[in-house]
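Dear colleagues,

As part of the handover before I leave the project, I'm documenting each prediction I ran so the next person doesn't have to rerun anything. This entry is a single chain, and its sequence is reproduced below.
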Amino acid sequence: MINGMRIAGLVLMLAVAGCNTVTEPDPSAKTMSRDELRNTTKEFCMRRVTKENNMSVEAAEKGCGCYASRTVNSLNKAEVAAFRDQGYFNDTAREKALTSLDICRVPRP
C-alpha cells in the first residue's frame, strides 16, 4: 500500500506540475491494475486536499473519488501502458487529470 501511495503521489504531483522526468519509476507501477491506480490516486488526493486545504476527510472524499474515477476511466490503453512503464502520466493523461480536478471541484495544488 505504501508503494501505491507513493505512485499516486507522483501521479497527482506530476499531473499538475507538468514534469516529464522521473529518475526511477516505482516497480509496483508495472503491475498496477486500473482499480489499484484509482484507489491509490483517491487516497493520495484525500491526504493532499485535507492537508493543504484544512478540509475534513468526509468533505474531500467525494471530490477525490470523482477525480480518481474520472481520470483513470478516461485513460486509454496506451496511457495506462505509459504510466506502467514510466511511473507517471504522459502529456495526454496529464491533461485528462487536470480536467478531472476542475470538473470534480478538487483544488489544484
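The CA atoms of residues 2 and 40 lie 9 Å apart. The chain has five helices and no strands.

All the best with the project,
I.
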